Here is the input.
Amino acid sequence: MVKSYTPAAVLFLHAFPLNKKMFQFQFEAFEKENIPYIAIDYPGFGENPPVPYEYTLTQLTDYIAFRLNELGIKKVIPIGDSMGGYIMFELWRHYPEIISGFIFTATRAEADTEEAKKARFATIERVQKEGKDFLIEFMLEAQTAPATKKDTKKMELLKCIMNESTDEGIITALKALASREDNTELLSSIDVPTLVIAGADDEKVTPPEIVKPISDGIKDSIFTTIPNAAHLPPFENPEEYNKIVIPFIKEIIG
Here is the structure.
């Protein structure tokens, strides 16, 4: 999805196991504000079919950079939730010249612990045997705040978005997530305007105390939390999320 006709744009990078539709409330708001953007699905998620090979997060980032170049986009302000945040670190590691600013959301700088890696591979084995349904149900519970769970319509929409993922896409992404690099040493090198956001009600995936060290490590960055949101603030509480990110983006793009 592209709503960019300029060489600079916001780049939306979605969480696992969702797709670009998790940012649908931002698309609408950004179009009203005439903010150009691009949103890319990872292989096996949303509209992007799975690939018949494994990839690392670095290779996925190379693919995203290729797509941006193909579209003539020279500068981006990435907004990444969870897995999207991991890709943002890779963009800074390999393509810093294209970054105008960062909005890290519900993510972390650390690599997986050995325990977390084992859990990912256990999930892979179960998806291979049973399919993705159990994982979708678990993610719906783990990633959402109490206020979101009470919103039946929003939960149904979220489930539909997650169900657009493929078993192959899920398995490949889990392997890439398990092998990602630790990014804590990278934080001090980030010298572009940076906003770091956590869901105030995230207790299971990326609580605020897990997210805040990103801001602590980046000079002059801003940290904030979104109420009535857990791991998916742009989707769970888009009104509050947009109130924070739109002025931040406008200040960068002028």
Summary: The mean pLDDT is 96. The domain at 2-253 is CATH 3.40.50.1820 (Rossmann fold). The chain has one domain: 2-253.
